[in-house]
Amino acid sequence: MKQENRSGLQVKDFSFAGELGSEGARIRQVGYNHFKIELASPMHGEGCPNRLQFTIRQNAKGNQLRLDVSYNHTNFMRFDEYFCSWSYDKKTWQPIEWEKDFKERPEENTLLFAEFAEDTVYVGHQVPMSYEDVERVVAALSQNTYVEIIDIGQSLEGRNIHRIVISDGKAGAAEHTHYFAQQHPGEHNAQWRMMGMIEWLLSEEAGCFRKNNECHFVLTMSPDAPSRGWYRANTQFHDMNRTYLVSGSDSERQTHEAWLCQRDLEQIAGHSKLMTVWAMHTWGGKVEMLMRESNDMESKYGSWTLLRDAIIAHDQESLCKPLYSVKERPAEIETSWGYGPFAQFGVTSVLCEGSGSIMTKEKNMLSGKTIIQGLADYFAKNAS
Questions:
Q1: Where are the domains of the chain?
Q2: Side-by-side strand order, sheet with 14-15
Q3: In degrees to the nearest 10, what's the CA dihedral of 179, 180, 183, 186?
Q4: What CATH topology corresponds to 11-125?
Q5: Which of 3, 92, 268, 376 is the most exposed place for a label (fewest CB within 10 A)?
Q6: CA-to-CA distance for 226 and 224, rounded, in angstroms?
Q7: Model pTM?
Q8: Cα 99 to Cα 112: distance, rounded to the nearest angstrom
Q9: For residues 189 and 361, what is the distance between their CA atoms, to the nearest angstrom?
């Protein structure tokens, strides 16, 4: 008979630092394998609570863990709005859901883990992606003949911000350029959505699309955030999707990383045929796409409804809501990356949200593949 680990977990076994951390989190033991965690925020209660991310460094094997988590400040952003994931190797992630519905706004919420089979366990927000993960992805992709890595600059703490460019490699050959970027740190499902796009774009099936289309990806604009568990904000506590200036990038008026990335996008727009800009985010439910379509795109390739239908045709697992147009709506947030490029350049801009209900890396990647396949079909089949 298997023997239970009677020693149990202790506070010293937990770490809130590392590749995936939660700055300021406090933990105390209240029973056998039962702990309470109080989360902090980078603005001492004024900003979003840091996400729950930690490592059990030792002694996890044979133990079943209960965590009661709280954030003792009034804030419209809940710490428990999304699921968490756990892993033994930071590669294969298993989802774990909160015991209570966050919409009920419980004072604390609980995670109940099944018995662990290994001593070391990693826990992160959504399906996490650390800065070090991004660096490993970039290093691997740099070996591909269809990929060019552009270094946009460094964050305030000296971490790299990369742009991944995918094309057939022939300078000036692309008829159109498409740009995808994640603004809000902590919205990791959006990063895996882009990874699904990248994986398909590098496949043989995408060869025709690569000949005429160039795709640019910024997997994160806020590389300083994952090790602290920061959510939505950078080192200067700026909401990274409230940072776009339609009047043009400005190092004095913008937070540092936003200035770097908007300046970089302006350079892309200046030397290529920028057609679409996608701001990649998460909220609850399926993937949801809100489009402000350009007159240029519709005059050449037809109504936005054709793109909607092309994506639906590939969505065999119903991961996405049908794309819809918000072009006629006034901008709710003029400094958002879902609106700014449309106003500044006159290009099609898409706020790509949702996926909070998609709880695996594989399904998030599949949602990205679904979208990029639909985009490819739209441009291939509807040219005037």
A1: 11-125, 131-381
A2: 14-15, 54-56, 121-125, 84-87, 94-96
A3: -170
A4: Immunoglobulin-like (2.60.40)
A5: 3
A6: 6
A7: 0.96
A8: 8
A9: 7
39-78 confidence digits (pLDDT tens): 999 865 566 899 999 999 999 999 999 999 999 876 668 9
Amino acid at 364: N
Residues 6+ apart with CB under 8 A from 345: 269, 274, 277
CB 286 within 8 A of CB 354: yes
Both tokens assigned to 128: 């996490």
Tell me the pLDDT tens digit for each residue of 247-281.
999 999 999 999 999 999 999 999 999 999 999 99
- The answer to whether residues 38 and 25 touch, using CB atoms and an 8 Å cutoff, is yes
